[in-house]
């Protein structure tokens, strides 16, 4: 067998790794493999996964520990933190299995776990956006049983669809036995990553539309308050500007993190250098690192619960303001 053919055949089973063109640094062969040098990109992904897991584990612990954080808003934040926590653990396990346990079964399980986790993370962001919109659009009826039912339905759909997407590679939608069908992320097929990218683009468009509607509602509320008080105060202007800026930062961060990877999955070729895949995949993982800062640690009720959890006491002189879902 030609050396290049043997290398391409062995590289096909590497879990959650970019496709390589003849210069793969990681191989999976039927014979006992020689010690492989650790790829610095894989180290960065593992470090990113560790930071993600630690950050989101704290959020999950706080929400589970605090009985007051049982509202639909915090249930959705908990869903997002859980998905990001699993994604971080998946990146760590991928690094370990990639260099310690090399098998097709582990490869498929790892990639399926990561696909399901990141899909749940992105879907949870959409659910939070929908919740924010409902809290403003239906402010009078938001705290009702209908809202609770809507939140639970979104959670079931979020995790159900994410689980199905994660099972696709395990159930046979992979390129372990057909290298011509491989995508830039092996062992996912081109059609698989196209489906994932199309799903992301759809979610991004829906979030963009909802955040535009939220901005319109916020500006309209500020205008109504100004009419009631006969003038627009500086505080109203600042609050409106801050709210719109926050929404722009949230959507901008989400798009900047995931759009490059989603676009490259569609237009990229498995013969391209692996650095392109790593360079777009790594920023996508940063979104899970930023999520707890945006959606959890900025919330004052979670800050108070953190104080109680880690300090064992609460100083009543510290003022905390109850926040609505639209503030999170």
Automatic annotation (TrEMBL):
Organism: Callipepla squamata (Scaled quail)
Transmembrane segment boundaries: 41-66, 73-101, 107-128, 149-173, 193-212, 244-263, 275-297
Molecular function in Gene Ontology: G protein-coupled receptor activity
Cell compartments where the protein resides: Cell membrane
Record-annotated G-protein coupled receptors family 1 profile domain positions: 55-295
Family: Belongs to the G-protein coupled receptor 1 family.
GO cellular component, as recorded: plasma membrane
SUPFAM superfamilies: Family A G protein-coupled receptor-like
SMART domains: 7TM_GPCR_Srsx
Protein name: G-protein coupled receptors family 1 profile domain-containing protein
Keyword Cell membrane: yes
């Amino acid at each position: 067998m030609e050396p290049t053919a043997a290398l391409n055949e062995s590289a096909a089973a590497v879990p959650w790794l970019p496709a390589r063109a003849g210069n793969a640094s990681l191989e999976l062969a039927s014979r006992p493999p020689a010690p492989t040098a650790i790829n610095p990109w894989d180290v960065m992904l593992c470090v990113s996964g560790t930071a993600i897991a630690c950050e989101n584990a704290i959020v999950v612990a706080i929400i589970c520990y605090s009985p007051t954080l049982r509202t639909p808003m915090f249930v959705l934040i908990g869903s997002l933190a859980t998905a990001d926590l699993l994604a971080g653990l998946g990146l760590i396990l991928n690094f370990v299995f990639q260099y310690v346990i090399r098998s097709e079964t582990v490869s498929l399980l790892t990639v399926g776990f990561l696909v399901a986790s990141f899909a749940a993370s992105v879907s949870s962001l959409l659910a939070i956006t929908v919740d924010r919109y409902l809290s403003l659009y239906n402010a009078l009826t938001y705290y009702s049983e209908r809202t609770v039912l809507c939140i639970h339905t979104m959670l079931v759909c979020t995790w159900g669809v994410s689980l199905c997407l994660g099972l696709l590679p395990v159930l046979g939608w992979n390129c372990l036995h057909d290298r011509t069908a491989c995508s830039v992320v092996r062992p996912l097929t081109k059609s698989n990553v196209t489906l994932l990218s199309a799903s992301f683009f759809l979610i991004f468009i829906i979030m963009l539309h909802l955040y535009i509607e939220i901005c319109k509602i916020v500006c309209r509320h500020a205008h109504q308050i100004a009419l009631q008080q006969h003038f627009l105060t500086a505080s109203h202007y600042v609050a409106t500007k801050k709210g719109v800026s926050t929404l722009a930062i949230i959507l901008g961060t989400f798009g900047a993190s995931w759009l490059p990877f989603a676009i490259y999955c569609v237009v990229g070729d498995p013969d391209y250098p692996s650095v392109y895949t790593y360079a777009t995949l790594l920023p996508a993982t940063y979104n899970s690192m930023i999520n707890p800062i945006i959606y959890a640690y900025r919330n004052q009720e979670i800050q108070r619960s953190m104080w109680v959890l880690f300090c064992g006491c609460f100083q009543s002189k510290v003022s905390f303001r109850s926040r609505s879902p639209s503030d999170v």
